[in-house]
Q: What sequence folds into this?
């Protein structure tokens, strides 16, 4: 799930739109003021990220905070760079749409053009009472995750830790928030849920598979493009957990255990479920009157990925849950899919400006409600589309992202009733040409891989079931995959 740090990207966006302190004089006849007119817009649309402890690099909680950025705010909202939102309005309906209303844009522009007047502080709405300690949703229960010492430089591979879940009884949760502490270097932190195994050591850093890379960081493959090779020295950097440093070579002895656990206990196609990724909100099932079941004895497999930024920094992960007050009537399931990663099928050609990957395909074997969609690619990602084909042959585009931006991992909340027998295909296009400003090497053939300079087509989606008795492993299947046997 590689992607850039949101704070770095937002600063780049601010520079792009002219982030310099605004110094025009206040006009005497200004009708728009900060406290009365601008603050409500910022509270509703901006402060969730633009406050201390969150991903944005500057706070917009007060006039003092916002005033130096007045011109940048105007330019960002008129160019529709902020808030970020990439869904084509011609397709789908999204409950969390971030586009500013034109009236709100007009308010911000008038305020800036008038000299950014403060107005009377008594006109301001009450401040939003944000959760403490960096949370977006105040948790009822917190699981302490791994700690990772991110090196100054080098390649950091995807690393897994198993941490105790502490669930001593079946527990229905209504939201899950993954909260790293070092947002500037965090590509992603993702979760998978496994049954407790006393043979698996808690907080031990483990690589999912052996990886060998060349001097440029590209994974070394056989002439046929297959993966292989031992893990490189120092690729994991310094990983630790609990109260002490992880002993032994990361990946040594843990490789078959972690992968075996995840694959044998995975639900449907979902090996990776809730995540922190820059721009992705916490998983909140409450708007759908649903909850997610965490069985008794569940531990949490935490997958972390970081990008060194030239400074040593330590990240610590926490996972916050809100708990259902009573048994739910509906069940939430987090799912992911993938295009074929076989290099014979997934290889982005050099200098290709619009390469179409093989689609990620799933078929629904039960009636479900589809409640969330998220495309995921890396730096060469260009566009994505989610399409349904119903049992009667009818096709429907439910999400079209004509301009994918890997810096913003957006989740699109929706509500679609999906009948049994429907197939969902997710298409992705890639720009491996010189026209892509993020492209590290347009002359390379790009294979499926974990790092941002490699590629990926790994969409995620959320489902809600009305029937709590349905086995989650039997809800969806990939192409050519038979139904698993009934218990």
A:
């Amino acid at each position: 799930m590689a992607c850039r740090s949101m704070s770095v990207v937002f600063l780049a966006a601010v520079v792009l739109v002219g982030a310099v302190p605004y110094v025009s004089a206040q006009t005497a006849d200004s009708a728009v003021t900060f406290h009365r007119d601008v603050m409500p817009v910022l509270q509703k649309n901006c402060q969730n990220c633009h406050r201390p402890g969150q991903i944005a690099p500057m706070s917009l909680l007060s006039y003092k905070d916002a005033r130096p950025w007045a011109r940048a705010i105007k330019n960002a909202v008129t160019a529709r760079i902020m808030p970020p939102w990439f869904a084509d309005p011609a397709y789908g309906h999204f409950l969390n749409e971030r586009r500013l209303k034109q009236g709100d844009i007009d308010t911000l522009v008038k305020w800036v053009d008038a000299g950014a007047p403060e107005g009377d502080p008594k006109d301001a709405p009450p401040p939003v009472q944000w959760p403490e300690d960096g949370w977006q949703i105040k948790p009822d229960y917190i699981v302490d995750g791994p700690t990772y010492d991110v090196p100054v430089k080098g390649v950091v591979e995807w690393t897994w830790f198993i941490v105790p879940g502490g669930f001593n009884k079946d527990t229905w949760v209504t939201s899950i928030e993954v909260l790293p502490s070092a947002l500037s270097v965090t590509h992603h932190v993702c979760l998978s849920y496994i049954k407790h195994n006393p043979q698996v050591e808690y907080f031990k850093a483990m690589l999912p598979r052996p990886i060998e890379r060349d001097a440029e960081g590209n994974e070394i493959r056989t002439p046929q493009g297959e993966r292989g090779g031992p893990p490189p020295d120092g690729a994991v950097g310094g990983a630790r957990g609990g109260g002490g440093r992880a002993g032994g070579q990361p990946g040594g002895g843990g490789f078959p255990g972690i992968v075996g656990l995840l694959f044998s206990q995975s639900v449907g196609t979902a090996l990776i479920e809730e995540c922190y990724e820059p721009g992705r909100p916490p998983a909140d099932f409450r708007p759908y009157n649903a909850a997610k079941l965490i069985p008794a004895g569940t531990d949490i497999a935490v997958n972390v990925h970081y990008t060194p930024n030239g400074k040593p920094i330590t990240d610590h992960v926490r996972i916050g849950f809100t708990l259902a007050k009573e048994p739910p009537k509906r069940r939430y399931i987090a799912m992911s899919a993938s295009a074929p990663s076989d290099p014979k099928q997934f290889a982005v050609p050099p200098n290709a400006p619009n390469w179409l990957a093989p689609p990620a395909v799933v078929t629904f074997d039960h009636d479900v409600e589809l409640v969330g969609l998220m495309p995921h690619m890396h730096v060469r990602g260009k566009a994505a589309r989610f399409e349904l084909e119903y049992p009667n042959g009818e096709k429907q585009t439910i999400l079209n992202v004509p301009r994918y931006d890997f810096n913003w991992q957006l989740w699109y909340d929706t509500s679609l009733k999906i009948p049994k027998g429907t197939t969902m295909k997710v298409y992705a296009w890639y720009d491996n040409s010189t026209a892509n400003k993020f492209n590290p090497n347009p002359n390379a053939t790009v294979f499926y891989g974990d790092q941002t300079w490699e590629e990926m087509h790994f969409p995620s989606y959320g489902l809600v079931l009305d029937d709590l008795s349905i086995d989650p492993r039997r809800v969806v299947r990939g192409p050519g995959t038979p139904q698993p046997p009934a218990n």
